[in-house]
Amino acid sequence: MNAAGTVERSVVRSKGVFEFGNATLQTSWSWRRAVIRLGDREWTIHPTDRRRIGVEAYAGSGPAVRLHPQRSHVPGPGGPVRWQRGHRGARLERDGRSIDVQIPPLARRPMRVEVTGDWPDLELVVLSMVYALMTKRRRRTIMIVAIIGATGHGPVF
Question: Domains plus CATH for the chain?
Answer without folding.
Answer: 6-151 (2.40.160)
